[in-house]
Amino acid sequence: MEIFGLSSSALLSQLLLGLVNGSFYAILSLGLAVIFGLLNVINFSHGAMFMLGAIVTWMAGQYFGVNYWVMLLLSPLIVGLVGIVLERLLLRHLYQLDHLYGLLLTFGLTLFIEGVLRSIYGASGLAYSAPEGLSGATDLGFMVLPNYRAWVVFSSLTVCFATWYVIEKTSIGAYLRAGTENPKLVQAFGVNFPLMTTLTYGFGVALAAFSGVLAAPIIQISPLMGSNLIITVFAVVVIGGMGSIMGSIVTGLGLGLVEGLTKVFYPQASSTVVFAIMVIVLLFRPAGLFGREK
Amino acid sequence: MNLPKHSFLILLIGLAIVAPFVAYPIFLMKILCFALFAAAFNLLLGYTGLLSFGHAAFFGGAGYCIGYFMRDLGVGPAAGIVIGVLFAAALGALIGGLAIRRQGIYFSMITLALAQMFYFICLQAPISGGEDGFQSIPRGELFGLIDLQNDLNLYFLVLVIVVGGFLFINRVTSSPFGQILKAIKENEPRAISLGYNVNRFKFLVFVLSAALAGLAGSVQALVLGFETLTDAHWTMSGLVILMTLVGGVGTMAGPLVGALVIVLLEHRVGEIGGFLSQLTGVSWFNSLGESVTIVTGLIFIFCVMAFRRGLVGVFIKKK
Predict the structure, then answer these.
(1) In chain A, which residues have their Cβ closer than 8 Å to the Cβ of B51?
(2) Which candidate, A199, A251, A4, A211, places its Cα nearest to that of A88?
(3) Distances (CA, A) of B9 to A260, B175, B268, B315
(4) Which of B301, B303, B307, B308 should be substituted to probe chain A, the one whose Cβ sees the most A Cβ atoms within 10 Å?
(5) Chain-chain contact of B301 with A93 (C-beta, under 8 angstroms)
(6) Which chain B residues contact residue A118 at CB under 8 A?
(7) From A107, A238, B264, B279, which residue has the greatest number of CB atoms within 10 Å?
(8) Distant-in-sequence, close-in-space partners of B29: CB < 8 Å, separation ≥ 6
(9) Using CA atoms, how far apart are residues B316 and B318, in angstroms rounded to an integer?
(10) B171-203: per-residue pLDDT in tens?
């Protein structure tokens, strides 16, 4: 079967690639939104945390022989702890100031973390192979489905919806939503708000690390892998608006798909298409697709 | 205008005139260009409260523009600089016009994203030379009279341009227009309620800032004779933020001091690393020169955490 002069299986595999990127966008913009909601900080180092997640996985495999599945759990924990330490030591002291300082601090952190890792590993990519159970591909009849990519999309979606469920439907999430609306009042009710912000930052960062682990076998692991991605994610966040969790997920996945389609029909524009969509959204819906005008 | 400030200015200009006979002129010109670039950025952050994360696009874009017009179309340096500035202003109108549609942190993210888009266009468009950038841009002769191949001649041209740029910024910030910008910075809703069309002012100052950044970028391309993607990359946007922060946000002399400190540091960081490794016996310090970002990152963190007034800011408050 052919669509627009392309075989449908080629089209579908590009769409799957787009969906893989889209799941990274979704998880990363979700984390950014959760952190921004409570801390009012745009976490520039989100990309660096994504990279840390991948590189910690690689290091554990290389030096200690720890396998992928363990790291899928351990790596977000380690990076989450790093985030908690950073929040306690540095970020905490900036909440009283203009939001811009949080962005600048996390930008400085990104430069530092990337610089340190680059002085150890250089800028070229490190290779990490997919776990045995997920290598290879399944023939579905209408297309060949690479198992690992399917796993990335599946697990990302699971984590996204679990996060959505926790925030929107449970009592912990209710505290979080209340804290986003009115931190002072939540504190007056006896909630340990400082602890809540610390854990929220740790959680957001751990999400980034989780997608970093997922990305390890399919993207070249390098100290710089996060920063270009995070700028695209910023555009995703501008398009979706940070007001809604589901909005972040849908926008992330959707833009990944659009990017994948652009790769098929006009590859030159694939790196800029997300930004172009951002321009269009800014022109016609300045508050973002899911945003509320403040 | 008090006397110490005047004598300080005269001293500074005297120093700038003597400097090329003592130090390497190209290096000095680089510092001057970055000082103007940082001052242009500071016009936005320090006087209007807008954090642009995309100023590299104007700096690098103007550099590409002057390179193309001077090398491939044979335009003279004066016209080249004007074209570079106009290009940056036009780009500023595009990016600024879109970015001011959102406030606060979104503004920063939009400028960053749009500048990244511009970067990708530079990377892919055949006209900009891709990864190699623009090589061997001629310096030409100013108005057909002054040979700019001579470093000293070029130095004084750059000095005049940069001093002119600073005077212009000073004029803008002390004008009624500048007062309204400060009002927007302090309290935007209030400025709106006073009847000012805030978006128009933001747009104007953004275009001004972009044009000045473009001036700095075109002059730098003229001085160095090449233009590469580095100048349009987001790390350059970060660097100009750092310069302003180190020098002192919202001060006139801050960007100059900041540019001086950061450019010097970037050049000397290898030597500092060598010295540290001798001192401490840790050989890792020797590789510090290759990873400047570690040092810039640390300075960034330090400035944001403990030194938000910057070098000049601290000095002014004490006085």
Answers:
(1) 100, 103-104
(2) A199
(3) 57, 20, 27, 15
(4) B301
(5) no
(6) 291, 293
(7) A238
(8) B154, B155, B158, B219, B220, B223
(9) 5
(10) 999 999 999 999 998 888 898 899 889 999 999
Which residue of B lies nearest to A113 if distances are taken between CA atoms? Answer: B294
SS3 per-residue string spanning A146-198: EHHHHHHHHHHHHHHHHHHHHHHHCHHHHHHHHHHHCHHHHHHCCCCHHHHHH
| Distance from the first to the final alpha carbon of chain B | 15
Per-residue pLDDT reduced to its tens digit, A39-69: 888 899 999 999 999 999 999 988 998 888 9
Rg (CA), chain A: 19
Please check whether residue A24 is in contact with residue A156, taking contact to mean a CB–CB distance below 8 angstroms. Answer: yes
Q: Alpha-carbon distance B272 to B288, whole Å?
A: 8
Chain A residues with CB within 8 Å of chain B CB: 36, 42, 90, 93-94, 97, 99-101, 103-105, 107-116, 118-119, 227-228, 231-232, 234-235, 237-238, 268, 271-272, 275-276, 278-279, 282-283, 286-287, 294
Interface probe with A: pick from B128, B291, B307, most Cβ of A within 10 Å: B291
Q: What is the ipTM of this complex?
A: 0.88
| pLDDT at residue B316 tops 50 | yes
Q: Which residues pair with A138 in a beta bridge?
A: A145
Q: How confident is the model at residue A134 (pLDDT cuts 50, 70, 90)?
A: confident
